Amino acid sequence: MATSYKTTKQNKNKTKHEPKAVQIILIALALIFFALILIIPLVLVFIKAFSQGAGLYLAAITDPIALKAVKLTLIAVAVSVVINTVFGLTVAWAVTKFKFKGKNLLTTFIDLPFSISPIVAGLIFVLLFSTTHGVLAPLLNAWGIKIIFAPPGIVLATLFVTLPFVARELIPLMDAQGTAEEEAALTLGASGWKTFWLITLPNIKWALLYGVMLTAARAAGEFGAVSVVSGHIRGLTNTIPLHVEILYNEYQFTAAFAVASLLTIVAVINLIIKNVSDWKIKKQENAASI
Fold first, then answer.
1. What is the Cα–Cα distance from 96 to 175, expressed in whole angstroms?
2. What is residue 21's DSSP assignment?
């Protein structure tokens, strides 16, 4: 016991007496890397977007085809956020509050979209839902349903790639919080819904918010899977990233960066909410530990 205490004290002293020059160099390298990889590119997006004036910027983002791309993107984001939030809450609740066979298998499947390339995911949907050579082609043709090269395909692909985010934010937090408060509420006669709304949800609201924002940001910026299932039909199946690609390939660089700035704004908002959520979660954990 004395040896352990002595070792810990020595490690603390060693950390405190780290050469100042080493600290300055490491911090400077981290800040330079951060600036080169994140800050400068973000600033350059807006510089390029406004390089020919605010008039051209507004014209680019209010172009009818651009507005249709924004509309389709918002639809995909809205559907993905709602469905994956419900899915994430359900899975997180099941994994952290109950013991059952196959729990590890379920958590493994949740991570599947992280390990599969978005391009491969798009090809899987084409293989399933194509009306010409898909596995379900006879049924889709018989019912007159078109999924691939149509908005439903965009939504399905976006749903798949954004599936894990809410669940992965909630599971560690809910697991760490345990079930004591919920069990106490149920013992006192509270219903399952009342326990969820008054006990569980307030404890996870900031992690849930961050998971929702991650889902929204990923859905808005998804390119690979959406590109495969969209068909790149202007005004019909183009989302914001696909519209940016088309503008860039047509050498309309200012317009491409103008539309891309919309995604950049989403990224910045997401970063702000992440920091606020982290601060609130830490504050909540510190209050619980007192």
1. 5
2. H
Residue intervals of the chain classified under CATH 1.10.3720.10 are 53-289
Domain covering 53-289 in this structure, CATH number: 1.10.3720.10
The confidence score (pLDDT) of residue 152 equals: 93
- Residue 260: the pLDDT is 93
- CB burial of residue 56 (10 Å; 0-12, 13-18, 19+): middle
Nearest CA among 70, 75, 89 for reference residue 261? 70
The model carries a pTM of 0.82
SS3 116: coil
Among the residues of the chain, which ranges form H helices? 2-16, 20-34, 40-49, 54-61, 64-97, 103-110, 112-115, 118-129, 137-143, 151-161, 164-177, 180-187, 192-195, 201-221, 224-230, 240-249, 253-289
CA distance 181 to 199: 7
Residue carrying structure tokens 């006879």: 138
